[in-house]
Amino acid sequence: MTRRKLMIAAAELIQDAGFGGLKVADICKRADFAHGTFYLHWKDKRGVAHDVLTAFMEAIRANRPQRQPGQSFYQRLVIGHLYYIDLYRRNIGLMRCQGQLADELDEFAAIGLKANLALAHRVLRAAEREQPSLTAEPIPQRLATALGCIAMVDKLLHEVFARGLAIGLTDDEFAGMLSLSWHRSLLGRDP
After folding, report:
1. For residue 72, which phi and psi values (nearest 5 degrees)?
2. Contacts (Cβ under 8 Å, ≥6 apart) of 134
3. Is the dihedral of CA 142, 147, 150, 156 positive or negative?
4. What is the pLDDT of residue 19?
5. Cα–Cα distance between 131 and 89 in angstroms, integer?
6. pTM beyond 0.90, yes or no
7. Nearest-angstrom CA–CA distance, 128 and 135
8. For the purposes of burial, counting CB atoms within 10 Å of the CB of 33, is it exposed (0-12), middle (13-18) or buried (19 or more)?
9. How far is CA 84 from CA 61, 139, 171, 174, 176, in A?
10. Closest CA to 68 of 60, 59, 78, 58
11. Apex CA 164: angle with CA 55 and CA 155, to 5°?
12. Which residue among 48, 61, 163, 165 has its CA within the 20 to 30 Å range from the CA of 2?
């Protein structure tokens, strides 16, 4: 329970101030624990940030919308993009922190890479269910295409929510545009 309260406090502080503004003293104050309690669980703020971001990425995956019978690949893409747009908007501090630390430290880059590879493989399996002939195409090219789609969404959402880029689309329109791009890239045709 103590570790969990400290992680929640750290997540809230990362969300508010980013990793650069994260201080062990502030984590302990917010969680209402003595300063030394933190060091029973982590060596430094990097340790708690790693655990917070790992738990965050696991929660993203655990709470993603589940496939429903009869859903087309395109419908699944739209639902998934709506989920991710909302998640990114509500957790911009954690998303920004993940990106910043991934650029600086390999251990943080590994968290995002693992999540993106798992997503890319899930997307490829879904595309294959929609269009079984895709299995004849080389996996490296299809994997690179899926990872490119993921990178496009991450970069665009960062520009919209972290930098304030006004694109003039509702969430439904935005998700539809992203999904159409993915569908064309992965299946080579419109839905």
Report:
1. -80, 165
2. 124, 127, 128, 142, 186, 187
3. negative
4. 85
5. 32
6. no
7. 6
8. middle
9. 10, 25, 10, 11, 13
10. 78
11. 55
12. 61
Mean pLDDT of 112-132: 94
- Vertex 152: Cα angle to 54 and 103 (nearest 5): 45
Q: How far apart are alpha carbons 73 and 77 in whole angstroms?
A: 6
For 15-48, the pLDDT digits (tens) are 888 888 899 999 999 999 998 999 999 999 989 9
Residue listed under structure tokens 């003293």:
25
**Which residue has tokens 């329109």?**
173
The CA-based angle 64-98-91, given to 5 degrees, is 50
The residues, any chain, with a CB within 8 Å of residue 167's CB and separated by 6 or more, are: 160, 174
Two structure tokens written together for 93: 């501090």
* Whole-angstrom distance, CA of residue 190 vs CA of residue 1: 50
For residues 46 and 23, give the distance between their C-alpha atoms in angstroms, rounded to a whole number.
10
Nearest Cα to Cα of residue 50 among 21, 17, 26, 14: 14
Across 82-99, b (16+ Cβ under 10 Å) vs e yields: bebbebbeebbbbbbbbb
Classify residue 5 as left (phi > 0), alpha (psi -120 to 50) or beta. Answer: alpha
